[in-house]
Amino acid sequence: MSLRQWLTTGKLKTTAPTVPGLPDPGDCTEPREAAAFQAANDAVETIVTSTTDSLLSTPRKRKRGEYNNLDEEQRAKIGRLAVEDGVARATRRFMTNSGIKVSESTVRSIRDRYLRARKASGDSHLAALPRSPRGNTLMLGSLDSEVQNWIRQVRLNGGVINLRIVMAGAEAIVTKFDRKKLARFGGHIEITKHLARSIMRRMGFVKRKGTKAVKTLPSDFDDIKCEFVKKVNNVVSEYSVPDSLIINWDQTGCQLVPRGE
């Protein structure tokens, strides 16, 4: 039995790609190149097909509902109803009267907040119930606003604002008014780059780099260039300056403040 029956002869069978952007093996002139293109196309099409099938078979994530923005008067009303009638009944009464959908867990948390606020104020009938403060407390406390005020003044005066400048100013202000809070005096505050970034981020300050706008030439650039060349020529002619002594140089910025990164 001959082995020729197991060998594939004839022209390589190719198919046009179904994925946009893939090369067509039928346009290849060399059999090896066509075989390589066909194998690569088949692999890519398999990946694309499997990815599409997985996306179609994966159920879409349910869109969350919208938040109910309850004002202070509504929160006080919900808390008062929950204290007087209970959470479940207060929830039904409030949704029926206002048309706003709230959950029992929300009503329960508002009731607890209402009881704490009523105990703290000594008033048994609160007309408004403000929200609890959100987010972490500021590390610098009340001094944070003073640091921000100083940074704004530096910026208004044309000064440079970077991490090292903010760190130096913050440490100086804390040292001036409440040094015992600093770590080197036994406190809990350590002025770091992370703190400086936090202050600048909350103030809306970002690091900026030079853009192409500074490279825009003025409208009368040709006139300015001609006037400059004319002045140079006049000086050269008047004092007989040789070409070897005509030197051109540019300005170099001097670092006046410490810079980071």
What does the model show?
The protein has 261 residues and is mainly α. Helix content is 50%, strand content 0%. It is built from 8 helices and no strands. The protein has helices at 31-57, 72-85, 87-98, 104-121, 143-156, 163-178, 193-203, 221-239. α2 (72-85) crosses α3 and α5 (143-156) packs across α6 (163-178). The model has no long low-confidence stretch (mean pLDDT 79).
Helix content: 40-55%
- Determine the mean pLDDT: 79
Number of strands: 0
Shape designation: flat
List keywords for this structure.
50% helix; mainly alpha; 261 residues
Question: Which secondary structure elements does this structure contain, and how are they paired or packed?
Answer:
Blueprint: H1 31-57, H2 72-85, H3 87-98, H4 104-121, H5 143-156, H6 163-178, H7 193-203, H8 221-239
Helix pairs in contact: 2-3, 2-4, 3-4, 5-6, 6-7
